[in-house]
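Researcher: For the annotation table, I need structure tokens for GNAT family N-acetyltransferase. Please keep the output clean. Sequence:
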Amino acid sequence: MDRDAVLAAYDQQMRHNARPDGPGARIERSAGVVRQVGAAGGWNGVVWSDLDRDGVDAAIAAQVSYFTSLGRDFEWKLYAHDRPRDLAARLRAAGFTPEPEETLMAARIEDVPTAVVLPEGVRLRPVTDAVGAELVAEVHEQAFGAGRSRIGHRLRAQLAERPDAVVAVVAMAGEVPVSAARMELYQGTGFAGLWGGGTVTGWRGRGIYRALVAHRARIAADCGYRYLQVDASDQSRPILQRLGFRPLTTTTAYIHRAGR
């Protein structure tokens, strides 16, 4: 895989030409910045920027003013290769707080194993309705310690309004959800995105995460996508590397609170 070529394609298709990530969201372009304004409870933030040193502070101030006027927290999704090189320091000076760094990874789908191997007694349940969305949210809460309402609301909306753009699955041990993941199908691009893969304590290290990657890779291949991409944590990066994923760059979410 040609890292530079894939990163350039990702920047062009997924960032510069970004599409709304869910029902009710919209993409706006203004002065070297591409941003998303989410639906109620959705994600708000800057997905792409191409700024020079002379105009960067004004562009940052404009985004802060805009989202603050809407009463919304927002994220500036910064990639290591974004310009100018001191953009991270300028965001911090403007009141943004960085979250932990993640690694943008990608793989050619043809290089990713698609054989689904699960522990005995575990089965995969496709998510197609509100009941399944609640199972995903339950796993998300247990695996990541985060509130379940946002992910549940988002997934229910996607399944209702854009079911062809999302794939979600839950690994069930009997009637107990033990792992879950979803995949965004970015129509009109060569990329499918892996999101939310998590396994509850007590079921980790048994190959379930790998099985969920394989399950989604097979579906993406059947749908004609060329690449899988994922924002990988330090915990998932080694597993993904063994499955054929390669680092493209790093990414850090810089958060601005509306009340600041």
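Researcher: And a one-line annotation?
Model: The first strand starts at residue 26 and ends at 30.
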